[in-house]
Design brief:
This protein is an alpha/beta fold. It has 4 domains: 77 residues; 112 residues, no CATH class; 90 residues, Beta-Lactamase (2-Layer Sandwich), CATH 3.30.450; 246 residues, P-loop containing nucleotide triphosphate hydrolases (Rossmann fold). 40% of the residues lie in helices and 19% in strands. The protein has 20 helices and 19 strands. The strands form 4 sheets. Strands 13-12-14-15-11-16-17-18-19 form a 9-stranded mixed β-sheet, with helices on both faces. Strands 7-6-5-10-9-8 form a 6-stranded antiparallel β-sheet. A hairpin with a 5-residue loop joins strand 18 and strand 19. Helix 17 packs across helix 18. The chain starts with 6 loop residues before the first strand and ends with a helix.
Length: 563
């Protein structure tokens, strides 16, 4: 066979053309290696396994480079072509007179049940679990019940996949799929003498559908409104953040393969990939939650997933005052600073609330302004009508096609923006951002990782130096001092609360030193009986240098009243 060029197809809609070409190349090989008489004798699951082996073995030889999802779609299409279409999710149901059913109380009805009541599935230590009625606990499921559900899922999952058509299932709405899977699961539980109560059966169906359409065991964590972050450290360790505190959950993945499948599903939604050649990836979920994934060999104990959940309720500056993150006077100062188009840099550590504050500040932007946002993984939630959202792109398998933040910053200058909002400044794009702030794009904002306002300025200088521009230190500091007007320092404290600890104004430069003045600071006083930190937000009483600019907008009196 002559060597053919390697073809790589995009995920999503772009895969349809690739699927047709893959079928064209592989169909002769499949027909040559599959006996038609054997097809009639095999179950759909067994046939799919045979086809998958043939595809995996022969795809490289005909010049196809498929990821796991593309291979699955191709196998499903080939199996359907050989075994016939499957209009319904239920497939190949055994013909039985009066098959036993599970009623609303988790009990088995029918002649088979009269002859031999099914035994409840054994739990992990080999003993039989005895509870067989709904617990009166508001629909919650106990740890013992969860163990039974997991064991039942392991037993039912492969049997269920033999009786459904994955392509047909993927096209169904979630509610309809849940309904069809519920009926199939009830029959499989009876056939395999596994007895679950109503709540456990519902949990089992939800878990199976989550594995098919969602993010598996992560789905209930993402649905919990009290959880702000989810951290997966390999298949057996999942932490969540509630109220600023980390808690270890009792949820786990089946194995490393299960975890990797979920990683692939996350990144494929936005057309990215994560594999050995590209083991790190920033992505986002369909609801806007930010995701970072790193897999082996870089992650030694298994794939690690970090999910910063999307906030359904928009957090405003007023809300932050209610939470104790700032004082009312600080809120008014920041409102004025945003209105008068100061260039604002938000500094803080990981998870300190930089993006939350950036979102809140952006709500002060006038609706008539054109705003361009630039991010690695889009998570800003601007409410203005005139917003252009830009997102970086990683390189492809050949190492080509990468679009960096610096590329987007440069391009944004040609898009006639009134303001540029950079999700995070962490590399050589700092010089382009500072130049944009210095050339008429007032009111621009960005975030940076630093422990205090002075260190934030030093970080900007270091990022410019890393770009290899060869600027002398004084020239860099002049760029920084003339571009940045205000620095907000946010911190996550040991009680889990996020607070703005400093609001500092950049005044200018004296010699080789950038001069600053504190406008507000947070003073720690102690902690109360509940362990919550007690402190005060204090004004230094200094007159801001941007008072004249505030006067241009008619806000100078309001500004001076605050201080």
């Amino acid at each position: 066979m002559s060597e053919q060029p390697v073809l790589r197809f995009p995920d999503g809609e772009g895969w349809k053309d690739g699927l047709a070409l893959s079928l064209e190349r592989l169909r002769p090989i499949i027909e040559a290696n599959v006996d038609r008489q054997m097809v009639a004798k095999l179950s759909r699951g067994a046939l799919a396994q045979q086809i998958r082996m043939i595809v995996s073995r022969n795809a490289p030889t005909v010049g196809l480079d498929l990821n796991l999802l593309q291979e699955r779609d191709l196998v499903t299409t080939l199996v359907t072509a050989l075994a016939g279409p499957a209009p319904e999710v239920h497939r190949m149901q055994p013909q039985r007179p009066n098959p036993p059913r599970v009623n609303a109380h988790g009990q088995v009805n029918g002649s088979h049940a009269q002859a031999q009541p099914p035994a409840r599935h054994a739990n992990g230590n080999g003993s039989a679990a005895l509870a067989d009625a709904d617990d009166d606990n508001g629909g919650q499921i106990s740890s013992a019940s969860m163990a039974s559900v997991r064991e039942a899922a392991d037993a039912i999952r492969p049997l269920m996949m033999e009786r459904i058509d994955a392509a047909a299932a993927a096209s169904l709405p979630r509610d309809e799929l849940m309904s069809q899977i519920s009926g199939l699961v009830a029959e499989l539980l009876v056939e395999n003498k596994i007895r679950l109560n109503q709540i456990e059966q519902k949990s089992l169906v939800t878990n199976l559908v989550n594995d098919m359409m969602g993010l598996g065991p992560l789905e209930p964590l993402l649905a919990d409104k009290d959880i702000t972050e989810v951290m997966v450290n390999g298949p057996n360790q999942i932490y969540v953040e509630r109220g600023g505190k980390l808690d270890l959950t009792d949820i786990s993945f089946r194995d490393h393969s299960h975890l990797m499948n979920i990683c692939t599903r996350i990144v494929s939604w936005i057309g990215r990939r994560v594999d050995e050649s590209s083991p790190m990836c920033d992505a986002r979920l369909k609801d806007g939650s930010r995701v970072n994934i790193i897999i082996p060999p870089l992650a030694i104990d298994g794939a690690a997933i970090s999910i910063r959940k999307f906030a359904e309720k928009k957090i405003t500056l007023e809300k932050m005052v209610e939470f104790g993150s700032m004082s009312p006077q600080m809120m008014k100062l920041l409102q004025i600073a945003s209105r008068v188009k100061l260039n604002i840099l938000i500094s803080g550590g990981t998870g300190s609330g930089k993006t939350t504050l950036l979102n809140a500040l952006s709500r002060m932007i006038e609706g008539g302004e054109r705003v361009v946002t630039i991010e690695d993984a889009a998570e800003l939630q601007l409410q203005q009508p005139h917003v252009v959202r830009l997102e970086t792109r990683p390189a492809n398998l050949e190492g080509q096609g990468e679009v960096t933040i610096r590329d987007l910053v440069k391009n944004s200058l040609r898009m006639r923006p009134d303001r540029i909002i950079l999700g995070e400044c962490r590399g050589s794009e700092a010089i382009d951002m500072l130049q944009a702030m210095n050339t008429g794009h007032e009111g621009s904002m960005s975030t940076v990782h630093a422990n205090n306002p002075r260190e934030a300025l030093t970080r900007l200088e270091n990022m410019i130096s890393m770009g290899g521009f060869g600027l002398p230190p004084k020239a860099m500091r002049m760029q920084v001092a003339s571009a940045i007007d205000l620095i907000c320092q946010v911190s996550r404290m040991r009680d889990g609360g996020r607070r703005i600890t400093h609001i500092s104004e950049v005044v200018g430069i004296e010699g080789d030193v950038i001069t600053m003045q504190e406008l507000f600071t947070y003073k720690y006083k102690g902690e109360d009986a509940g362990g919550k930190l007690v402190g005060t937000f204090e004004s230094t009483g200094l007159r801001p240098q941007f008072t004249e600019k505030a006067a241009y907008f008619g806000l100078d009196k309001a500004l001076l009243e605050i201080l």
